[in-house]
Amino acid sequence: MASSLDDYESLASKVLPAGVRDFIAGGSGSETTLRRNRSALDAVTMAPRVLAGVSSPDPSTKLLGTPAAIPVAIAPMAYQQLVHPEGEIALARAAAMAGIPYVISTLSSQPMEQIAAEASTWFQLYWLRDRAMVESLIDRAGQAGCTALMVTVDVPVMGRRLRDVRNAFQLPSEVVAANLVGARTEAHVGVAGASAVATHTAAAFEPSLSWLDLEWIRQRTELPLVVKGILDPRDAYRATETGAEGIVVSNHGGRQLDGAPASIDALAAVVEAVDCEVLLDSGIRSGTDVLRALALGASGVLIGRPLLWALALDAAAEALELLSGELTQAMMLAGCATVAEIADLTTGRA
Fold it and tell me: The pTM is what?
């Protein structure tokens, strides 16, 4: 059994093909932002409150109206069958066992309907060149029982991920974008010096996504609208003016603009700018990190890579149990009986 979420990466790296390992672990460019996510989280300090009499903290909350046993949702991640035969279905089951929401990716390797049958789900939408397919995905998400629509806005094109380029990474034939009916096949065709996944997204994604398109999405669905990929408080404010009920502060795990700020460094200004739920994504690796995010004003966090590593070992439920235990202990050490009390901690920078 792993002692920390970081343990799963080293363990999974021993069983995954090198190309898949790099596809999960890598960032864009020189991976400056990828590294910055971790160093910035490590720099956040929290002054614990003492003599608080906290013996049994309650880490439960609601995220976008969805009950959550801990203030965590599973981030949208593509092609999970790369690491497990059941892929997203297995991870959704682990989310249900942990009592937290699961975010279904547009590029999931299992159909959204099958994933949504396993857990409380939200649907993550990429803006596609095919407007009819976008409409279909939004409709299917509602019909499948997803309770929020999360629009990712920081991928007009995929960042240049050099590990994938050097590996000429391509998807195996059995792993497909299951939600995209009649999906293109570029992701399965390897070309030296190129990422086949990037070639596929360049063909499928519409880079000109604008505020007008977000307004169209808002009018197209009655689901709560969440905008993921915001780092500038001006964009956060405008998203709420457009009708967003939630913001995800995210640099896409360091996989888009290399040189972007760490998500945790952008969080406080976004929280200050808007009056809605704000979630943090990118770099969360422990219960202490969850505490850090909430102390800086987040309503909750999204967690991604550690659960893919754990999924590769068929240990996603174990990883979420470990995360929950870490958060509960961190709350005790900080003197916080409830999630709401975490926001009152005094924070600083090391």
Answer: 0.96
